[in-house]
Amino acid sequence: MSTAGSGAAGEDLWQPKVNPWIIAAAVSLAAFMEVLDTSIANVALPHIAGGLAASNDESTWVLTSYLVSNAIVLPLSGWLVASLGRKRFFLICITFFTASSFLCGIAPSLGFLLLFRVMQGAFGGGLQPMAQSILGDSFTPQKRGLAFSLYGITTICAPAIGPTLGGWITDNYSWRWIFYINVPVGILAFLLVYQLVEDPPYIARLKAKLSGFDFIGFSLLTLGVGALQIVLDKGQEDDWFGSHFITTLVVIAVVGLVSLVVWEWFQKEPIVDVRLFTNFNVATTNLMFLMLGAALFSSTVLMPQLLQTLMGYTAQKAGMVLSAGALVVLVVLPMVGKLTTRFQARHIIAFGWIGLAAAMYISSKQIDLLMSFRSATLLRVWQYIPVAFLFVPLTLAGYVGLAPEKTNAAAGLMNFFRNMGQSVGTSAVTTLIARRSQYHQSVLAEYTASGRFHASITAMAMRLMRAGLSTHGARQQALGRLYALVQAQAAVLSYVDIYWLLAMGSVIMFVASFLLKRNEPRKSAKVSVH
Hints:
Helix content is 75%, strand content 0%. The protein has helices spanning 20-36, 45-51, 56-59, 61-73, 77-84, 86-106, 110-124, 127-138, 144-172, 177-180, 182-196, 201-209, 215-234, 244-265, 280-311, 315-339, 345-366, 373-399, 407-445, 451-466, 471-513. It folds into two domains: 18-203, MFS general substrate transporter like domains (Growth Hormone, Chain: A, Up-down Bundle), CATH 1.20.1250; 285-530, Up-down Bundle (Growth Hormone, Chain: A), CATH 1.20.1250.20.
């Protein structure tokens, strides 16, 4: 069996001139900066709206514009590397991401901010897949797991740290500083990448084979992915198919994406290499990355939303619950990287999925309105630990049997599906909480006709009357308080439903893990020419 190796004589011995761990630190810094920006602005939206004289609904486009442009560029990464060279493309992305971050900070109006966020998302889209593919080429197959564990810290921990850091910066300084902080980090990342990173020989061959730009493929990609991202971000807000705008975008997304796959399948030099999905491991790991992104990001949304809306936590205190899980992952990820040198990736993946299923099932049984801060933190830690056992081996499994010329395109697709999973997860969570809360409230309302419920109202009204309220006022307030309690309990039950669904999805992925092709962590990778 073959793994990513070299496509030409002597290339299997290629190694970077610089210590690969120094390269790993440099490229991970750039990726961390970009991933952080996907979530750091979330908590600052009210401040942005106030500062730029915009409504809260208008300010949400600050997130949507970034996600749309980011999602379009991710699957293009392989073609852009072939066109520009990987190092040059990476440096261009860092430069313009940093510049657009500064422009976001000085934006005088919402319109300008949205324009600069589109630029920021577009150039940020190349940072994650380039960091991943550089790590894949800089390390031998036996050490890639350790390298990807460092990269995993950026993609797993940054979304959890982002809201807490963004809230602290906004409260103590200004929302503009959530963009300004990218400038020194971006400059440092540029200098490090410029000095340390080099392109392997196969990159030159990719550039030599490229003949032109696929305008039709690019147009279909932009229409399909852009429309889909807006649907996922705005669907619940606009009542899904009750909105003509959302319905139109769904049609555009379906037609655009189906046409993209058909068109690219028959192109000699596709802008998105859809033929990669004929590789079973690539197709399966991308599906798993979609599920992982949905589980990771939806649970990141669920916990703070539960704590803030139903239990009265501040944004900072809720963020501390999330950060605890991220800190534990910092310790676990290097251990997982070491395990990949001893055990097959698919076995570690199976362990990760069954662990995640158990964590989500336990969460569905333990969350309630009396949950303590300590209990919430422990639940979040248990939810996060299995993710460490998934990200690194999934990345490894996606490279099994893949020629080096295909790794840049594969990295772009992996990151694209993980990011789309995040959008799908967030959209599903907001929709299910609203719909399931209504369902559970209607079920609980049936019990309000019972004598026990009326006795509770009478008892509460008596206590309020002794506190000085009139008979009518006491009864009205007692009804209001019990109705609020029914709403809160209905909302908690909707969270239980979502955790249960995440557990079931993880079980399905656990079964699929054993279908992946095996890798040989203890043996040298054979050379493959595709």
